[in-house]
Design goal:
This protein has about 260 residues and is mostly helical. The protein is built from 13 helices and no strands.
């Protein structure tokens, strides 16, 4: 089921980016194959809701009240799956400045996101995202970690590759936002990458969410070829943000980290 969901995500991403090659890349990456098809991580559900919401924000349909309500309803549901989707809220709210309905889409967002708001009063949901009771010694995402001394040369190569790629992608987001002045489109991917550095134990499958968070770049008006090129660069870098999945091929045994 999750693999089929990833196929749908690939179609949506290809349609949003107008590149079926990027859709195929998304579906065929080791990250998707290992963490979704093998390990059963539920991230494709959030990506499906986010990409579906973005589909309704396309310029050709976003002026319609129904499209706006659907976009904000799906965004609220995506937040229920994982809080990372809230990073897209500035982009969606910015798009509401365009002529069209505003009250109904906001009401749909509140209604679909209400469970998370209620849950926050009962347990520190946001804090659970930022902190965990343990520290991942093999994490390439936390800003203050180094490869484990006993790690194999292959793992150290993967570790530093992921570090460099994430810093490079963050730089592209920040420079792109300043160059194009499309701040709201770059907020979600930039904040997500910075968040990976802040969280003490970011899971290796978290980068699965990056393509959906970067998809809005270049989508809103006015048209920007530069923004779309920057989005392409980020999506091409994305598979290198998770090389842990490659470590698990051909054996999923954890000892390959040290051999």
């Amino acid at each position: 089921l999750l693999t089929v969901m990833e196929g749908l995500n690939a179609i949506l991403l290809g349609r949003l980016t107008r590149s079926w090659w990027l859709g195929l890349l998304y579906w065929a990456t080791p990250s998707s194959i290992w963490w979704v098809s093998h390990e059963g991580q539920p991230d494709p559900l959030q990506n499906l809701l986010i990409l579906g919401a973005l589909l309704f924000t396309q310029q050709a349909v976003f002026a319609r009240t129904g499209a706006r309500v659907a976009a904000f309803l799906l965004l609220g549901l995506a937040i229920q799956v994982k809080l990372f989707a809230v990073l897209l809220l500035p982009y969606f709210l910015w798009r509401l400045r365009e002529p069209g309905a505003r009250a109904l889409p906001l009401l749909a967002l509140v209604a679909s996101g209400l469970p998370s708001l209620v849950a926050q009063f009962h347990y520190p949901m946001v804090q659970c995202v930022l902190d965990t009771p343990f520290y991942q010694k093999f994490s390439a995402y936390a800003w203050d970690t180094l490869p484990h001394p006993m790690a194999s040369p292959r793992f150290k190569t993967f570790f530093w590759t992921m570090q460099v790629v994430i810093y490079l992608a963050t730089l592209i987001c920040l420079v792109g936002a300043m160059k194009t002045r499309r701040w709201t489109e770059f907020i979600a991917p930039a904040a997500f990458l910075i968040g990976l550095r802040i969280m003490s134990a970011a899971r290796p499958w978290y980068p699965l969410l990056f393509p959906a968070l970067a998809a809005p770049i270049g989508q809103g008006p006015p048209n920007s070829v530069t923004a779309r090129h920057l989005r392409l660069a980020l999506l091409l870098l994305w598979p290198l943000m998770d090389l842990y999945s490659l470590i698990n091929f051909p054996s999923p045994d954890s000892h390959v980290l040290l051999n």
